[in-house]
Amino acid sequence: MTDELRELLERLYDRYNRPEFIADDPVSVPHRYAGRADREVAGFFAATIAWGNRRAIVRSGHRMMGLMDDAPADFVRHASDRELKVLDRFVHRTFNGGDLRDFVLALRSLELRFGGLGAFFESRYQATQSLPEVLAEFRHEFFSCDHAPRCEKHLSSILKGAACKRLCMFLRWMVRHDDRGVDFGEWRCIPPSALYLPLDVHTGETARALGLLIRRQNDWRAVEQVTAALREADPDDPVRFDFALFGVGIDRSE
What we know:
Layout: H1 3-16, H2 36-48, H3 54-67, H4 72-78, H5 81-85, E1 91-92, E2 95-96, H6 97-114, H7 117-128, H8 131-142, H9 165-175, H10 201-209, H11 220-233, H12 242-253
Antiparallel strand pairs: 1-2
Helix pairs in contact: 1-12, 2-4, 2-9, 7-8, 10-12
């Protein structure tokens, strides 16, 4: 990586990794909460529906939290059948109320067996030292309880080569920690150096324009390629440049 490109990435990172970034981004949904458990659940659901128009994603994320009585962790743990029925009115693109209900029950099962999202990811990373392996394990465990097969399309499979953009974004929120206030840094047992870039259309186009990504498909191999390039700029926290690549891509499209 050239010094010029490294300096450009640093300037763009500084421009976009600011509190002003939060309001129009799905990360604003978990920012409603101060507690780790609520942030985990709210962040997971906000990331799950994070495709398409950002404004629509943010609106849907906040509406989802309202259906969970603005207490997402408690709702996952204790919602009755009657309360779960309320979720039927939710829809965001192809993610409907039935999908949401199945996802809530999958998180409940995960909590009963592993102690919650953070406990699962931190313990499995400590055991494997491999986030790709943990992503594969997570999907397997998440769908180990009863669920409608149609909801499986809303959780990407790394074993099928998917870029897993939404899971990588959720992990960025929960793992990265700095003094900027956007990401939460709740999961300290996973180092930021282990993260992978949340690759989507915007970050992919910008990465290719900058020569950071050669592969044409936005799949897991592309994620590995662009993350390796970003590690040349910052081996300890390569995914912080997600702000740079995504921000430029959004500015170009809006």
